[in-house]
Design a protein that fits this description.
The complex is a heterodimer of chains A (168) and B (321). Helix content of chain A is 70%, strand content 0%. Chain A has 7 helices and no strands. In chain A, helix 2 (40-61) packs parallel to helix 5 (103-123). The model of chain B has no long low-confidence stretch (mean pLDDT 93). The longest helix of chain B has 31 residues, at 142-172. The radius of gyration of chain B is 23 Å and the shape is globular. Chain B is built from 12 helices and 12 strands. Chain B has helices at residues 8-15, 21-28, 88-94, 117-127, 142-172, 178-196, 207-213, 220-225, 230-240, 286-293, 295-304, 313-320; strands spanning 36-40, 54-60, 70-74, 77-85, 101-104, 107-110, 130-131, 251-255, 260-263, 266-271, 274-277, 307-311. Chain B folds into 2 domains: 8-141, Beta Polymerase, domain 2; 151-320, no CATH class. Classes of the chains: A mainly alpha (168), B alpha+beta (321). At the A-B interface, helix 1, helix 2, helix 3 and helix 4 of A face helix 5, helix 6, helix 7, helix 8 and helix 11 of B.
Chain lengths: 168, 321
């Protein structure tokens, strides 16, 4: 795809692109760190919470009504959608129902998270950088500045950065 | 004059991420200038791992410029720094209504609505903070910690009630996410239990670790994960002695203020950039709202904000008493 609706790009895609580094990336780091610690329960829970944040990105990309990424609201908002991410959430619930969470359950949960992440990233028309790294931080700020310029060009107000900065 | 020595707890908490206090000072430099600095977050609460961030709060005498987090790096480890004005923890505590408390899950649960989550989360961080330097005082006294603990238990209870009520809506919609919503509501009850037992650091993903450190049965979380319907939830909370069975009766639904438009006899509310069918609300009861317009219509109305669903504080207080 080489052309997008600019207002969709400036509004929905911008929100999704910004929520990925703020909400999804820390979750992926948490899940991986817990796996390295062989803390399988925490790993699976972190995977679930992160896939929920991916559902939030997906709802925004689709322009569906979703307020905050608060878990209970998010599950209600995602209920009407049958997507790869909601499918991942149902799969994670089946994994969580196992009597014991072990390495293999955690491995499946991490795979589920990776698949859902790839799906959502593939829908965001901006390359998502690893913001929480020394090499990704400043380039991400440059993307934010350019998105702000785009919003102005299509007649939108300034992005609510303060709300987003305090989300996580 | 030389700076006060670092506390042993600070040095020891940083070891988990392989960073020393000297490195922290080297990276943050003058950003650390202030009255007192505290390590907060999972590392301070003894919960972190090698991938955890170093979260620092610096208290300054002058008014802080809003809550603006700053991000730094020590090699691959992230340092999150926020400035607060001295006295902010006490002001936050003053925001907790004093309406007494009631016994719950071996601890205490505050009566009356819990303070906002942002405020509570900050207080939980300050309550579990580790001073960077010798001589920095604890941010809260033991009686104040008890008040914060009771408020956090109450918060979990309210979150669980609302989450379970929304699970009722999902169940009525036959959504594949209903089972997940029920199990997560049950896990919030487990969170209330660990908070009642004194583990008051707020961080969803740390629930398994906090449970492992509590006196509660290790199997509790596995039981919560298998709660997948209303009947399971009622059984789970009743066995634990948490008086929130039939959560749909513990919430109220209300129409929010929004401009309405009518097209060919159908009324719509305009809210958050969405036009949404306005459901009939014969009463403030969730069951009435679902029976009247259907669960899917109600879900859309809640999602757009044209209808609000909130925990009924008086009813929860009544159950706790």
């Amino acid at each position: 795809m080489t052309a997008w609706n600019a207002r969709w790009f400036a509004e929905q895609a911008t929100s999704a692109a910004w929520s990925h580094p703020l909400l999804v990336q820390p979750g992926i780091e948490d899940a991986q760190a817990a796996a390295e610690d062989e803390d399988w329960d925490t790993c699976v829970l972190a995977c679930l919470l992160t896939v929920e944040k991916l559902a939030y990105c997906e709802l925004m990309l689709d322009g569906r009504p979703v307020g905050s990424p608060r878990e209970d609201d998010l599950l209600l908002a995602a209920a009407g959608a049958q997507t790869a991410v909601t499918g991942a959430l149902c799969q994670l619930q089946r994994l969580r129902a196992a009597p014991r969470i072990d390495r293999s359950v955690a491995k499946s949960a991490l795979d589920c998270l990776a698949t859902a992440d790839a799906h959502v990233r593939g829908r965001i028309p901006i390359q998502i950088l690893a913001m929480r790294t020394p090499e990704g931080f400043y380039p991400t700020l440059r993307v934010a500045a350019e998105l702000e310029r785009l919003r102005k060009a299509v007649g939108l107000d300034s992005f609510s950065w303060n709300w987003w900065a305090n989300l996580s | 004059m030389s700076a006060p020595a670092y506390t042993e707890n600070f040095r020891s908490a940083l070891k988990r991420v392989g960073v020393t206090p000297e490195t922290v000072v080297d990276v943050l430099g003058s950003c650390l200038e202030g009255e007192d600095t505290y390590l907060v977050g999972s590392l301070a609460a003894g919960l972190g791992n090698a991938g955890s961030d170093i979260d620092l709060h610096v208290f300054v005498a002058e008014p802080a410029p809003g809550v603006v987090p700053m991000l730094f790096f020590a090699d691959r480890t992230r340092l999150d720094l926020v400035h607060y004005q001295v006295g902010t923890p006490a002001k936050a505590l003053a925001g907790i209504a004093e309406q007494g408390d009631a016994p719950l899950l071996g601890g205490r649960c505050a009566l009356g609505a819990a303070s906002g989550m942002t405020n509570l989360k900050r207080m939980s961080r300050w309550a579990t903070s580790v001073p960077m330097h010798m001589g920095s005082p604890s941010l809260y006294s033991p009686p104040e910690l008890d008040r914060i603990g009771a408020a956090l238990v109450r918060n979990s209870l309210e979150v669980a009630v609302r989450a379970a009520a929304l699970a009722t809506v999902l169940e009525a919609m036959h959504s594949c996410l209903a089972a997940l919503a029920w199990s997560r509501a049950a896990e919030v009850i487990v969170e209330a239990a660990v908070r009642a037992g004194g583990q008051i650091f707020v961080g969803d993903k740390w629930l398994p670790v906090k449970l492992g450190r509590s006196d509660l049965p290790a199997t509790l979380l596995a039981s919560a994960r298998r709660v997948e319907c209303a009947a399971d939830f009622d059984r789970f909370v009743t066995e634990l002695g948490v008086p929130v069975a039939d959560p749909a009766s513990l919430v109220t639904v209300r129409r929010a203020e929004a401009p309405e438009f009518t097209f060919v006899g159908q009324a719509y509310a305009l809210t958050g950039g969405h036009l949404v069918v306005s459901p009939e609300l014969p009463s403030q009861a969730l069951t009435d709202a679902m029976a009247s317009g259907g669960a899917a219509v109600l879900a859309d109305a809640i999602n757009t904000g044209s209808v609000t669903l909130t925990a009924d504080q008086d009813k929860i207080d009544g159950r706790l008493r």
